[in-house]
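Q: Structure tokens for this one, please.
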Amino acid sequence: AGVVLAESEYRHALETGIEPFKGLLLGLFFMSVGMSVDFALVAEEPTSILALTAGLLAIKLVIFYLLGRAFRLPGDGSRLFALILAQGGEFAFVVFQFATTEGTIPAAVADRFIVVVALSMAMTPLLLVAHDHIAARLRARATAAPSHDAIESGEAPVIIFGFGRFGQVIGRLLDAAGIETTVLDNDPDHIEVLRRFGHKVFYGDASRLDLIEAAGAKEARLFIIAIDDTDKTVEVARLLRERFPDTTILARARNRNHVFELMNVGVDAFRRETFDSALALGRQALVELGLHPTEARRTALAFAGHDEEYLLEAYALRGDEQSLISLARQSRADLEDLLRNERSEREAVRDAEWGV
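A: Here is the predicted structure, written as tokens:
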């Protein structure tokens, strides 16, 4: 039935309709399986049952840990991945019951296997608790060490806060232009990878004033905040503006609301993280649809300029939803008129050049 419904054009509506029943039936399945578990076997054969359970967990732990390492899961991801998947799967209950019905394995053996799988599932939360306890102790040892790297040189004219996918592009560009930068990031695993690729990155919390000053904030000419966390970006921007009012601050923005928050704390300039790439792709779309590349570029520039103006107007009206809705509608109409007029002017100029 599921295969037939999957091919139906109404499959999404059908999935929504049967979702409550799926949860109910799944619950009944687990209840029936739970009632079929013969826990008396644990008391009768504790050594063999516990040995089988430990063996199942150990084998799956090793296999999934090696897979995690092979796929280079970050940090302690390999351990956590292995612990979560070390338990026996629910499908094992179905397989054992079917195997018993078909006479593949004796019922007594199937009963033991069912108990082993159930115990392995019960052990998973305990293993995760143990993992969290060990990880907490390891982190506690790490905090005994300095909470940030010693800054080798605090004389770079630019300090970049955050060196993820956004900050790396900026850092590589400045480095290629011969401009020295000091980079701060708070992800130790990420920093380790970046250092292997030759990047000069220091570990530390960008909201700590002592670390910012050690990085040479008093001598820096420019701060670039490229942190992915929007709240952290605003926090760092506010601290930098309060402590270093004369230094230019450039910031990465997530969306319009984030832009408004950054403007409130006095950021000098900002770039929305997806705006430029989306604009470039839209420009390419115009070219693919037959527009000349030069005209596509002019159209994109006109759109970007109009959007910046609209953003400033929207900032003045923030908090007034009705005014923002009215402004958005008017801005859309103005943009259409702007692009239409520019297109007409270009066509008139082209006709005049050709003597039409």
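A few notes: The chain has 15 helices and six strands. Residues 144-148 have pLDDT under 50 and may be disordered.
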